[in-house]
Amino acid sequence: MASITLDSLTKSYGQTEVLHHIQGEIQHGEFIVIVGPSGCGKSTLLRMVAGLETVTSGQVSIGDKVINDLEPADRDIAMVFQNYALYPHMSVEQNMAYGLKIRKFPKAEIKRRVEQAADILEIRDYLKRKPRQLSGGQRQRVAMGRAIVRDPQVFLFDEPLSNLDAKLRVQMRLEIRKLQRRLGVTSIYVTHDQVEAMTLGDRLMVLNGGYVEQFGTPIEVYEKPASVFVAGFIGSPSMNFISAQASKGQLTLPDGTTLASNTSANGPVTLGMRPEHLKQHGSGPIQLEVDLPEQLGATTLVHGRISGTELPITASLNGIHAASSGDVLRFDAPVEQMHIFDAQTGKRIE
Ligand SMILES: Nc1ncnc2c1ncn2[C@@H]1O[C@H](COP(=O)(O)OP(=O)(O)O)[C@@H](O)[C@H]1O
Ligand SMILES: [Mg+2]
């Protein structure tokens, strides 16, 4: 069984610890996305699983077997990178076959696997071409083909779609997801793109500065973000944050507005409200003074400030709305859509 266990993994470069006691259990066949901003340690973590970086402390296991000291080639893992790193002088077919050839697989078996992978990826017509004769999307498929023919226990992906244009990225994202379901191979996928993370992952590991902020399903992470960081990182447009005083279940905003809530917190908190959860209502307590409406067609994003303050706030309205700079729109803040965080630690308060 290709479950993966990360047990208190740390990584230091010299005196600097860049990953801090990473903990996580990945089930057999699961698709896990490691997501976080640039520099948070995603690639380093993935490369430790691949065996391309040493482990400073803690353990990585596949199934019951600790693999810390196993050579990359002995881990039964295939990795797909952002720069596809195809051999330019080899045909598609040779690129896909190469890994099996150096592992001394019989010719007939190599042929069978390459053809099967080419069928799955629908690149059979390109097998004789050189990489330079392919589009970016086709090259990315060949890079995936090279991983598939290995028939590994684990796939690792490091931002494999970053070099593609937006439309192709969406298409390839769907293809990777379907492929992973079909093959059922345990996979870890690294990205800084929260939309990619939300759509691909069975679960997301949200990393920030080398710490796991949250490890949960996309819905858990969206509905119950564990911290201000996760709340702000996941979801587009970003969640609104307003400092508030909590007392006896009530929240008082800096402009004196009071909101009903069901928090048990007392004292300073951070109130989080997603733009799509603010409900336009003629006598609602939140007054948004419009700076700029953004017409996106399906929705209108209204950016502005809480009336009489400099506190930024954004609301997302369904459909097309005529709002102009200076208008004041009023909103309800539904209690069940409020997120309350500790003002000091940024951690979620239930
Ligand atoms: N070989 C290295 N030597 C020193 N520091 C490194 C090395 N590789 C990565 N780092 C540092 O580790 C941190 C995490 O890097 P990385 O895993 O590449 O982040 P991400 O993939 O999330 O963008 C960064 O601060 C980076 O500068
Ligand atoms: Mg990286």
What descriptive keywords fit this protein?
single chain, 350 residues, alpha+beta, Rossmann fold, OB fold (Dihydrolipoamide Acetyltransferase, E2P), 6-stranded mixed β-sheet, 6-stranded antiparallel β-sheet, 8 helices, 21 strands, elongated, binds adenosine-5'-diphosphate, binds magnesium ion
What's the arrangement of secondary structure elements?
Elements: E1 4-13, E2 16-26, E3 31-35, H1 42-50, E4 57-62, E5 65-66, E6 77-80, H2 92-102, H3 107-121, H4 136-149, E7 154-158, H5 166-183, E8 186-191, H6 194-200, E9 203-208, E10 211-216, H7 218-223, H8 228-233, E11 240-247, E12 250-252, E13 258-260, E14 267-273, E15 279-280, E16 286-295, E17 299-306, E18 312-318, E19 328-332, E20 339-342, E21 348-349
Parallel strand pairs: 3-8, 3-9, 6-7, 7-8
Antiparallel strand pairs: 1-2, 1-4, 4-5, 9-10, 11-12, 11-14, 12-13, 14-20, 15-19, 16-17, 16-19, 17-18, 20-21
Helix pairs in contact: 2-3, 2-4, 3-4
The structure holds adenosine-5'-diphosphate and magnesium ion (MG).
